[in-house]
Amino acid sequence: MVVLAQTCHVPAQISTKPRSIKPQTSMRTSVKVHKLTTEDAMNYILTIKNKFLRHPEKFHAFIHTMIDFSRGRINTHTVIERVKILFDGYPDLLLAFNKFLPRGINAI
């Protein structure tokens, strides 16, 4: 979630052109693990922005939640509670949000 929160400080004028990302292989297992990048976070943020074009207050509330988290004003539990309320009725956004949470913690 740190990558997502830090991304909220990135200027809006970034490239959204997809780049290929090579999955990393864990040395302990042969399972390929995708390490989240700033680009992943930006793509997710753009998805949220596009979903809420008619409700910009929801998008702004999400951004402010991420900023509050990055500044240490709120903890992970509070972020999850706020996001669950904001994204009520949008299970796709909640499922995608899970990948930014610490391992073992899920929004839904």
Describe the SSE topology:
Layout: H1 2-7, E1 24-25, E2 32-33, H2 38-51, H3 56-70, H4 76-86, H5 91-98
Antiparallel strand pairs: 1-2
Description:
- The chain is mainly α.
- It has a domain at 54-108: Up-down Bundle (Paired amphipathic helix 2 (pah2 repeat)), CATH 1.20.1160.11.
- The chain is 50% helix and 4% strand.
- It is built from five helices and two strands.
- It has helices at residues 2-7, 38-51, 56-70, 76-86, 91-98; strands spanning 24-25, 32-33.
- A hairpin with a 6-residue loop joins β1 and β2 (32-33).
- This is Histone deacetylase interacting domain-containing protein.
- Keywords: Nucleus, Repressor.
- InterPro entries: PAH, PAH_sf, Sin3-like.
- GO terms for molecular function: transcription corepressor activity.
Estimate percent helicity: 40-55%
End-to-end C-alpha gap = 15 Å
Give the SSE string: HEEHHHH
CATH topology of the domain at 54-108: Paired amphipathic helix 2 (pah2 repeat)
Secondary-structure class: mainly alpha
**Strand line-up across the major sheet:** 1-2
Keywords: Nucleus, Repressor
Subcellular location: Nucleus
Organism: Oryza glumipatula
Main location: nucleus
